Amino acid sequence: MMPVLLKRRLQSSFNSFVSMQKWEFFVRMSFMAAGLAILCGMYFWFYRVLNYLYGISIIGQLLPWKLSSMAFLLMFSMVSISGLIAAMTTLYYSYDLKFLFSSPLSVRRIFFDKTVEASLYSSWTLAAVMVPYIFALGRVIGAGLFFYIYFLALLVPYVLLGAAFGIMLSLGLMYWFPTSRTRDIVWLLGSSAMIGAYMMLRFVQPERLTRPDALEVVSKYLQYLQAPTAKYLPSWWLVGGMQAFHYGRYGDFALCASGLVLSVFALYGLLVYFSKWAYMKGFSGAQEGMRQGPNKGFVEPLERKMIYTGMMETVQGTLLWKDRKLFMRDVRYWSQGALILAIMAVYLFSIRQLPLDSGDLKSLISFLNISVAGFVVASIGLRFTFPSISLEGKSFWILRSSPVSLRSVLKEKLVLWTLPSFLVGTVLVAWSNVLLGADAFISILSLFTIAVASIAFCFMGVGLGAVFPRFNVENIHQIESSAGGFIYMAACIGYLALVLVIESYPVRYHFMGRFYSNASPDWRLESLCALAYVALNAVAIVLPWKLGLKTLESCEI
User: Fold this and answer.
1) How far is the C-alpha of 341 from the C-alpha of 335, rounded, in Å?
2) pTM value surpassing 0.70
3) What's residue 212's pLDDT?
């Protein structure tokens, strides 16, 4: 029966490809081109860093290998955590599990099929990131063709082994604690671990390794650099095998490679064998609803008070109460909120570490900072605002059949997400201006611009999310990575680029006035820039809103 399951996946992928429309094919190709461009950029950045480290006297030949072992150890940990989170969704909450369990398939075959799916989902992106790193390392150390072949051949069992550890942990957790609450706890712990690793990686300031004044400290750890990093973990089996192959120690290479491959077969074999007893118990418990405690009485929601005072319409208040309750119940939103706070902390830390001495240069960076802060706000909109319509899912027909206008639904989504986006954008820019010490004109201009941009992004997110709804998806990441998500981000980036172009003229004369006393701006061009700015925001707000409303009115589900 395994060939039948494999054929089902291949046929499903083939049907998706042949049924793809031209614009969808263009968007997918654009995604692939953007991904390849990012990987190429990472390759050149990795090469510059590794080439610099390799040229350091005495320890130069040790630093790239030590850095590689640490990078692969971090990658293995992240794949394991990602495998744990992916397994919780794929093994216990996939939409096709009820169909598979009703078919003449054994539990082990179903488990193996979903395990392969979870392993691929949790590891392919991290594996793709490490490919340009290894190619840059091979170029620096002068490796031959077989070096890359060895790496690409063993990268697959390496990431599968990391995912297997996460799947094994999820199987044990759901066996001993078979309840939907376990998934929520895993989401929180896994996300917290990733967030902690992300923040620590930035706060240790790895850029100090490239500073000449810090090399004296690094050279004291020569013995540490020569020692293997976590030699009993698969990360060192891969790096140690690469190092042994490069230096001609083929016996050590064969030992590391065979250990990696045999561990994959052994671990997945054990998982499939014990799944006959452990998987069904966890799956059965995962389908149960959450137990509620004793009734503590009815607490009047905030939305009802706002309706009574006339601050909000009855329909919008009811919808807002519904979405707020769903937000508080879904633990995935909590982890995403924590990730946003971590991104803000790292962002402000990076701003503080910029080596800027001139006050005018700091003000210029504050102006250009609009684009970076705007990109952060747009990315948050891609995660929260854009999918808000699609997350109604198959219950969207209830809204269509109820006496609620679709305009009210869109307004409610806008009210829900405008304030968080506004706060994130203004806090980032305002705090950055304080850290940089920007002058008053740049501070006011940048704060006003990001505030308007945050509101425009919410309109674009809700509107384009209604233009490209996907009500039949299993995972929210399918909404973010869809053609609509790509168009939303492209529209946001285009908006930020046009804003910087429009505001560059008044900013230019602002700086010219600081250096030349006789420099005076052309008020006709100033007025033209103001009109262009108003027109741009009008288009960014009105056009997606109108298109989204029209699309939803003609949508059938």
Assistant:
1) 10
2) no
3) 47
